[in-house]
Design brief:
The complex is a heterodimer of chains A (349) and B (314). Chain A is an alpha/beta fold and 349 residues long. Chain A is built from ten helices and twelve strands. In chain B, 35% of the residues are buried. Classes of the chains: A alpha/beta (349), B mainly alpha (314).
Chain lengths: 349, 314
């Protein structure tokens, strides 16, 4: 937990850091071919179309995409939070368990214990009628990581201090409405890391916060990862957030991943037309006044059936084959994959 | 907390004063001369004048109002013209009887309302929920006197399972069991409307709470559905308390129909009888007591609310 001699070099995607638990063989979380289908009024709506992601211990992967791209659905599906209202295929392997093959009780034992989530809106994610300390103690006792009530209380205060809360006893006794948004999100993070999970899922954890608090919270994630060696899968629509925390970035569009690779690579040298358009759409101080580049058209409505590339209708490079052939996610550079054969013709086998 | 309570109590003073004023004015507006109805049509004008003066009815209205208030503060509710007894005793006895009926129906209404509402919310889209919704709607919309009479016809006169009217049996009565036996039919009759209202409110509150983010967060923390339901229920209690408290308040002042149908010797029946007899002192005091109880219940509800929900403790 405490890492006494911290070396400042934390560049790149070095998964083993000082203080982190011994790196396990293979990724902490490996999602393969995940699909999520909802039944809406007799229609089958495919919201996630076969997502492959994996995160190693201490690594942070950012799922980047616009609203409705299926990124939140993806991480909620990983936790199987939709219960019987969604059908899934694929596998979610955590350690040596495939979550998709576990029964409800076994999934509950994983949630909050080895796989924890930081919710989007700290204003609504805490029970308004219970002091936050009690909610923290509840998780600790639920998963049996503390011996008794007293130990839970002590550990809760430690955790609040760990997430940078200045006076833990006072905050522990407070109800959510007595805390600021940033404080609440720190509490939510404390709850998420309470049982020292292997993987932390974060669903737009900074969207509801103002910019200064946002960067503090993102710093906190980095800090906690360093200390606890947790793998982080963070969902955001905000490219600057991705640039800030990601070791690797996966870009999502219409329910599938269109590009994936090291953060620098993807954000500075995007290989998929959608990623290029998305990055072009960011307003910059240097861009011409009054002109914002937008992507023409609009993303397909969830559940639309298409045979080829989901971006073909909005893509400047689209060819006839794009509308019939679903593009595969193929390597374009070292550790960098993109699902666009037009922009990245295969050079040699 | 104490500050909250004190403020809440102080706030009820103007409410009660307002109620007293409305009651007083209503009594003055309704047609009928109490003096004439007391002395009968053959009385002499002199006798009527003398009684008018004795009752203070020849004073200006503001003076009458203030002296009524002053007397009330000293616990003097006046004399019943019809029964020739102090009003205080009459009203107190009747109020206790009404309290029994109210308490019994309140328990029934809350239990029935919670069950119907919970089923409607948690079994949404299934037959059980449709049945619950239908029952709740039925119990809200059926008039009390219809239900009361139906129950009497079927379960009292028809089968003889329950007594037709009254509070105790004439022979061998007076036990707790006897009281409970007499409470069943009027209790059910009075409980139906509030039960329906509580059911519908509870259904929508449960659905509201279950769709809140923190329920999902609990799920993501690994809690079982049963414990999540418990936390959801906890979060419905502020609303539940407010609505149920209001319904109990209405019951307390509104069981007039039920008391009349079942000849329950309560406040409602006393006031109802007194209206036809122009027994003004009893009407005034009866309504004031009911209003006072209503306000008191609301204060208690607010207090409990603030104990459950820290957000209202401001």
């Amino acid at each position: 937990m405490t890492s006494p001699t911290e070396t400042p070099e934390t560049s790149g995607a070095a998964p083993s850091r000082p203080g982190a638990p011994a790196p396990t063989a293979g990724p902490a979380l490996e999602v393969t071919g995940l699909t999520t289908t909802f039944s809406r009024g007799g229609r089958q709506v495919l919201a996630v179309r076969g997502v492959d992601v994996s995160v190693g211990a201490g690594e942070s992967l950012v799922l980047l995409g616009e609203s409705g791209s299926g990124k939140s659905v993806t991480i909620r599906s990983i936790l199987r939070l939709y219960g019987s209202s969604a059908r899934h295929t694929g596998s979610v392997v955590l350690g040596d368990q495939d979550l998709m093959r576990l029964d409800a009780a076994a999934v509950r034992a994983v949630r909050g214990r080895t796989l924890a989530m930081v919710p989007q809106d700290p204003n609504g994610s805490l029970d308004p009628l219970r002091p936050v300390g009690r909610q923290l103690e509840q998780v600790l006792r639920l998963h049996g990581v503390v011996a008794d009530r007293k130990a839970a209380r002590a550990r809760a205060l430690e955790l609040l201090a760990l997430v940078g809360i200045p006076s833990p006893p006072r905050v522990a006794a407070s109800h959510p409405h007595e805390l600021s948004g940033g404080m609440r999100q720190r509490v939510a993070i404390a709850i998420a890391v309470a049982c020292d999970p292997a993987v932390l899922l974060a669903d737009e954890p900074t969207t509801a916060l103002d910019v200064t608090v946002q960067s503090q919270i993102l710093d906190l994630f980095g800090d906690l990862q360093e200390r606890l060696g947790t793998a982080l899968l963070l969902v955001t629509h905000d490219v600057s957030v991705a640039a800030d925390v990601a070791d690797r970035v996966a870009v999502m569009y219409a329910g599938s991943i269109v590009e994936e690779g090291p953060a620098r690579e993807v954000l500075e040298n995007p290989r998929h037309p959608y990623t290029q358009a998305l990055l072009d759409a960011i307003p910059r101080p240097t861009s011409e006044r009054g002109h914002l580049k937008a992507i023409p058209g609009s993303p397909p409505v969830a559940g639309t059936d298409f045979h080829g590339c989901s971006f073909a209708d909005r893509c400047a490079l689209a060819q006839e084959s794009c509308r019939t052939q679903p593009p595969a996610l193929l390597p374009v550079a070292d550790g960098h994959r993109a699902a666009c054969p037009v922009a990245n013709p295969v050079v040699a086998a | 907390m104490t500050k909250f309570l004190v403020r809440r109590l102080l706030l009820s003073v103007p409410i009660l004063l307002g109620v007293s004023l409305v009651v007083f004015i209503t009594i003055k507006i309704i047609p009928g001369d109490p003096v004439a109805s007391m002395l009968g049509p053959t009385s002499t004008p002199e006798a009527r004048e003398a009684l008018t003066a004795r009752l203070g009815l020849d004073q200006p209205l503001p003076v009458q109002y203030l002296s009524w208030l002053a007397a009330m503060f000293q616990g003097d509710l006046g004399q019943s013209i019809a029964q020739q007894r102090p009003v205080l005793g009459l009203v107190a006895d009747a109020f206790v009887n009404t309290l029994w009926l109210t308490a019994f129906s309140a328990v029934l209404a809350v239990v029935l309302g919670l069950v119907l509402g919970a089923v409607a919310a948690l079994r949404r889209g299934r037959v059980a929920a449709t049945v619950s919704n239908a029952l709740a709607l039925f119990s809200i919309s059926t008039p009390q006197y219809t239900i009361g009479l139906l129950l009497i016809i079927v379960l009292a006169n028809g089968t003889g399972w329950f007594p037709v009217s009254g509070m105790y049996s004439a022979i061998g009565g007076g036990t707790w069991g006897d009281l409970l036996w007499h409470l069943v039919l009027p209790g059910i009759t009075a409980a139906l409307v509030p039960a329906g209202i509580i059911a519908r409110m509870f259904r929508s509150t449960v659905l509201d709470v279950m769709s809140m983010d923190f329920i999902d967060s609990y799920r993501a923390r690994g809690l079982s559905e049963r414990r999540i339901l418990w936390h959801a229920f906890h979060n419905t209690t502020p609303t539940l308390l407010t609505v149920a408290g209001l319904q109990v308040g209405y019951l307390l002042g509104g069981v007039v129909f039920v008391e009349t149908v079942f000849s329950w010797p309560g406040l409602g029946q006393l006031v109802f009888d007194s209206i036809s007899k122009r027994d003004l002192a009893v009407i005034q005091s009866g309504v004031m007591v009911a209003a006072f109880a209503f306000v008191l219940i609301n204060v208690v509800v607010d207090l409990l609310h603030s104990l459950i929900d820290p957000r209202v403790r401001a």
